[in-house]
Structure formats: C-alpha cells, structure tokens
Amino acid sequence: MYAKQPLGGPEQVLAYLGRYTHRVAISNERIVGIDGQEVSFRVRAHQAGEGKRRTIRLEGSEFIRRFLLHVLPPGFKRIRHYGLLAPASTNASHKRRLAQARAALQQPEPDPAIVESVAQFMQRAALLDLQRCPCCGHVGLRLTPLPPTRPASLPLTRGPP
C-alpha cells in the first residue's frame, strides 16, 4: 500500500474536501436580498462573457422549487466510499487498511470510545438520578422502553448508481 503524506496535513485535506462535500446549492453570499415575495441572488451571466455576474429575482416559491432540485431523494448518497472504506470489503480488512494508513501517516491509534448507559450519562451531565422517583424519592425505579407509536418504516431502497 502506498500512502503519500498529505501536502498540508490532514486538516488541510479535510478543509479542501469539506468545501465540495458539504456545500449547499447556493451560498449566503450570493443571496442579495429577500423582500416580501421575491428573492434576489447573483448568478454568472454566460451570455455576457466569462466572469460577468448579474442579479436574478424570483418569486419565493420558484426559488424554493429550484433549490429543492438540489436535494437528494431518499436512498441516494452524496458521498460514496472507495479505497480504505469501500463497502464491499469486510470489517477486518477495514481495520487492517486503516492501521496501515495510520502507520504510513505516523498517526496513533485513536482512544476507544467510552460507552456509558443513559442513566450514567444523565447522572453525570444533568445531575439527575433516573432510578430515583422525582415525587417521593424512592430508589429502584426501572426504565422500560415505550412501545413504538407507529409501525417501523420500510427500509429505503437502494438508489441507482
């Protein structure tokens, strides 16, 4: 396995990828104004030549309709994993390849996650003892899950490649 050292470090790589993977259809800087029923925003004017910009005004409903064209339907994914985290590989090969990548980048193994129960978390975070009755103070309450209020949803179908 060949893994080249990132040019500016992992933070720069994440910043670079983040600009492409987590952006929305239109940035706030391009929206010029919102007044009553219309939205004005800047676009590139392809007819006027390269680098020229013009302002478009649309009704709010048309702006939202165009914006929603960029929202992925259920079952589709924006980011697909290849290489180290390819979905066709096994969990054991994920661990092996991640260990090789960490060694090549001279990164330590991450600390294991600390798992605590809901009762322990609430005691630590909110100083709330879930096993004590809030009315009478009796200790020994048991937490039981509530039955679902609606039937479980069907699994999402896989989208086209």
Topology:
Blueprint: H1 10-21, E1 31-35, E2 38-44, E3 53-59, H2 60-68, H3 91-104, H4 118-126
Antiparallel strand pairs: 1-2, 2-3
3D architecture notes:
There is one protein chain. This protein has 4 helices and 3 strands. With 161 residues, the chain is of the alpha+beta class. A hairpin with a 2-residue loop joins strand 1 and strand 2. The protein is 27% helix and 12% strand. It has helices at 10-21, 60-68, 91-104, 118-126; strands spanning 31-35, 38-44, 53-59. 1% of the residues are buried. The chain has a 3-stranded antiparallel sheet with strand order 1-2-3. It starts with 9 loop residues before the first helix and ends in a 35-residue tail after the last helix. Among the domains are: 39-71; 83-109, no CATH class.
Concise overview:
It is built from four helices and three strands; from the N terminus they run αβββααα.
Notable characteristics:
alpha+beta, 161 residues, 4 helices, 12% strand
